[in-house]
Amino acid sequence: MPEPIIFHVDVNSAFLSWEACFLLKSGTGQADIREIPSVIGGSEAARHGIVLAKSPAARAFGIKTGEPLAQARRKCPHLQVFPPHYDLYVQNSKALMALLGRYAPTVEPISIDEAYCDMTGTKGLYGDLIAFAYTLKDTIHSQLGFTVNIGISQNRILAKMASDFEKPDKVHTLFSDEIPVKMWPLPVEELFYVGRSSYQKLHNLGIYTIGDLAHYDRETLISHLNKHGDTIWQFANGIDVPEISASQPETKGYGNSITIPYDIEDRDTARIYLLSLCETVGARLRSDHAFIKTISVSMVDSSFQHSSKQVTLPSATNITEKIFHCACQLFDQLWKGEPLRLLGVSTSKATKEQFVQYSLFDTGMDEKYEKLNSAIDRIREKYGEDSVKRARFLEGQAEHMAGGINKAKRTDTTENV
Fold first, then answer.
1. With DSSP H G I counted as helix, E B as strand and the rest as coil, what are the percentages for the chain, rounded to 5?
2. What count of other Cβ atoms lies within 10 Å of the Cβ of residue 412?
3. Per-10-residue mean pLDDT for the chain, 417 residues long?
4. Cα–Cα dist 84/417, whole Å
5. In the prediction, which pLDDT does 412 show?
6. CA 219, CA 20: separation in Å to the nearest integer?
7. DSSP H helical ranges for 27-178
8. What pLDDT score was predicted for residue 395?
9. What is the rounded (10 degree) CA torsion for 383, 387, 389, 391?
10. pLDDT for 283-314, tens place per residue?
11. Among 269, 332, 253, CA closest to 297
């Protein structure tokens, strides 16, 4: 059996790179925005004013992804901010995955801008696979216009860690014998799956580097961090996650949230936004032929206090009206009248099978709603999602299918990039 070889391909500053390519190609940009202090930022007027992606020049000013644009401007007064165009990003993502599929026997997309490629057994085709990674990187740049980092190892976790080494436009290896030199000296917060709360707990245990974590007593770590502690201990020792499959894993939950441009202070307005979120969630469920049993509603008030509540249904469903009905009940139990700036609807316990538990008071509405939802889905699939919308959205108070990048993902963007 040939030795496993995994590539982790990660687009450098994806949103900003893709925006730069578009501006240069269309002739609307004066300069390559990757070479000046610039960021892709959400709408400050609509309260999405955070940094979504940054150029290397912006990073030099200490600007970080996820920070408020106002804070980024204080660090760099001449910072240039460009709005996101999610449909453009989806097009570029599809182009990247298609190109990778021409070279790799198995491609596993893990987000819009990164993927694993299982190159095991391809040495006969490409020769030295480390040298080929440079060829692949340059091919992506020449054909698609943006740069990537490629991490190479015998498993996924190490390949991903390798791709995060020096950027941009680099190829790095991280094989087992390289772990002590290349990975163990790094701060523990740079290990995949170690978030802010995790590394604070690790610091309290005297663990500051990935090497400290790798050599820490496994059972003691589990006693402090439970299963998560065991997972990151394995990652620190270069132990792999489950093997790559040619298909993406099934989604176990579907959710969406929206930051509202103004404070919501009445129940009717909140319900309009809840319905908008439920429309999107329901459409995604039916598109995947999935059903869910658990529904939750979350909210953030004007003081940035977060709260949530969930319920488990007697039967799995993907009917928009039922999801919305439950969401409204949860909202009424949760909301105390405080001004709201964010609402979210999420679901879990997804399944491909539906078992209906009928009650003595069943009115047969489920079957009617199923037929209605199915008809609306077909119309939207053929003519676009804006071809059918509920009357309460005609006043334009809220989009009839709300939520972040999801609209771009639901839009057919198969044109050539």
1. 45, 20, 35
2. 9
3. 91 92 80 90 66 90 87 92 86 93 91 91 94 97 95 95 94 96 95 81 94 95 88 92 53 73 84 90 87 89 80 88 93 91 84 57 69 87 80 74 51 36
4. 17
5. 39
6. 49
7. 56-59, 69-75, 86-101, 123-126, 129-144, 156-163
8. 67
9. -150
10. 888 888 888 889 999 888 877 678 888 898 88
11. 332
Over the stretch 146-181, which tens digit does the pLDDT of each residue have? 999 999 999 999 999 999 999 899 999 999 999 999
Question: CA angle, corner 60, sides to 58 and 64, nearest 5?
Answer: 60
pLDDT number for residue 241: 62
Strand-pair partners of 344: 257, 298
CA distance 204 to 244: 35
Q: Is 279 left (phi over 0), alpha (psi -120 to 50) or beta?
A: alpha
- Look up the pTM and report it: 0.66
Nearest alpha-carbon partner for 40 in 28, 31, 25, 51: 51
H or E element: which one contains 256?
strand 254-264
* Whole-angstrom distance, CA of residue 167 vs CA of residue 266: 48
Distance CA 394, CA 1 (A): 62
Compute CA distances 19 → 51, 138, 231, whole Å.
14, 19, 36
Radius of gyration, alpha carbons of the chain: 24
114 is catalytic: yes
- What the block records as the tokens of 6 is 């995994």
Task: Please choose, from the candidates 170, 148, 169, the residue with its C-alpha nearest in 3D space to the C-alpha of residue 103.
Answer: 148
Options 114, 279, 321, 385, the catalytic residue:
114
Give the Cα-Cα-Cα angle 49, 269, 409 (nearest 5 degrees): 50
How many CB atoms lie under 10 A from the CB of residue 93? Answer: 23
* 328, burial (CB in 10 Å: exposed 0-12, middle 13-18, buried 19+): middle
